[in-house]
Amino acid sequence: MRESWSGKVGFFSTGAALAKDSDMDGKVDMLTQPATVKVTAEDLPDGADLEAGYLYWGGTQLPTKCADKANIDDTVTFTPPGGMATMVKADVCYCSSSVTYEMQLCRADITDLVNKMTGDFVVTDFTAAVANTDTDNASFALVLVHEADSLKERRIALYDGLFALAAGGTPSATVTLDGLEVSNLPAGDLTWYALEGDVTLGEGEYVQVKGLPGKGMSQLFDDSNPANNPFNRTINTMNPPMKGVTGVDIDRFSLNSILKANDTSIEITYAAGMDKYWIAFNIIGVDVADVTGGEFAAASSKSWALTGDVNGDGIASPGDTVTYTIHVENTGDTAGVVSVIDQIPDAAASWMLTEAAGGTDKSLGNTMIVEGLALQPLAALDVVLTLVLGDVPDLEAVMNIAQIDNGKPELVELAAPPLEVRRDGDADTVFDTDDNCPDVANQDQADGDNNGQGDACEAATGTTTGDDTSTSGSVPTTGQGDTTLDAATDTAGTTGMATTGDVGTTGSASDTSGETGEGGCSCRGTDASAGALGSLGMLLLLGAAGVPRRRRRSGGMRA
Question: Does the chain have fewer CB atoms within 10 Å around its N or its C terminus?
Answer without folding.
Answer: C
